Amino acid sequence: MIIIDTLFAALPLALIIVLMIGFHWSGAKAGAAGWIAALIIAVLRFAANTEFLIWAQIDGVFRAAQVLYIIWGALFFFRITEANGALNAMSTMLRQISPDRTLQVLIMGWAFTSFLQSVGGFGVPMAVVAPIMVGIGFEPLIAVVLPALGHSWAVSFGSLGVSFEALKTATGLEGAVIAPDMALLLGIVCFFAGFSVLWVAGGRHALRAGLWPMLVMALIMSGVQYLSVRAGLYNIASMLSALAGLATGVIWARLRQDKSDSNITPIPWSKHLVSILPYMVLLLVIFSANLIHPLAEFLGRVRIQVAIPQVTLANGQVISASKTKALSLFGHAGALLFYTGFLTLLVSKIQGTLPPDAGKRIRTGMIRSGWTSTLGILAMVGMATTMEKAGMVPLLSHAMADIAGRLYPLISPFIGALGAFMTGSNTNSNVLFGAFQQQVAQTLGYTVPLILAIQNAGAAVGSVFAPAKIIVACSTVGLSNREGEALRHITKYCLVILVILAALGLLITSVE
Fold this sequence. Notes:
By secondary structure, the protein is mainly alpha-helical. It has 21 helices and six strands.
């Protein structure tokens, strides 16, 4: 009976994998199928009734809202900066900083890509940076691979921490508990990301030429991210670390330039600094909301939450009363993005930097990018919440623990990567497998934050070679018929990083 229940519990996840990989369904469609399957199985095999299903979905909506608030806020802000020219100004300024090819790769393909991930994410870094890399002389295939690998370490705390928030939501653990281990492992990924972009750009020659600046930038970026996390600045940890990496790369480039070289293009700093004002405003808004305690308390006063009553299942099992996750209407990271977006919109209108059709472009871009993600996340969270509350996740975790035993850390990052590969999102992978990995860690006696850090790092790397992201990037550089080639190139580097993560996980857990 237990074996049969375990097989049924695994069916929603298996269905998603088959539909997405075998039949090339989108995350939204496959997620909906998995959600429906989870509902049916919960009723037929786990004694769920109508009352249980209704409250589980209400809880799932509140969980999803934590993530969706950030997604729509990030898209709103990004589309405005795209329309008013701030993004192009940032790109132009960075191209002018150094004529050195190796430093261009480190600054553009690694640090700047990671900065874009920190403020936008959702495929934006690859779509924006790939054409820039073509513009400075790289062939289109390499131009896609470079930003793909370069931003992998910044995914989890990027997009204002949406993936991190998803893992918190899925596991019910506080940020201070899980964030430090996540930052440490992602710091290791940062070093390998820098190594990879140099190797892809020019093999041994580029690695020799750029090794020292890469090591210094990686040390600073990973260090700033860790310190930011320890300070509780989860939502801007990637942003601060990417900015620190950018500053380091720029300083290194300027110090290495020959001042007598007549080919050096003067940088119109005043013009560019005005153009990138939105990013400075975003930092100011986020810092103010996080560090000015009276303001933080004021913004956090309005919180939406629903009490979930005690529910009795059809077999007599009682599920205790609880509450949904509270949504801070005005203090949430998503709200801060909307504030910054509106301020940027107001300033842009005053300055006259918005084109006549900007409003339509912003709305269309937001809807096109956010609608599918919204449906996918709602479906995935609905499925994950149903499975968790019906007891399917604990059942699967025990089965996985029995099969893998003490070697579980070897497969943990690949589980995370599989979820991200399927859905195109570190966020969705953390929703799908966060509670599952937590249960396995508890069953086997591993440190839960460490296993969750391995899950998250694997998901971050897995999101890099997700087909959905690669298709978007290839479309921007004229490689619409070569996505498979780009996928193969990116995947081989990502698999190496995943193997290293697996080995590290096994080593650390074996000496605990």
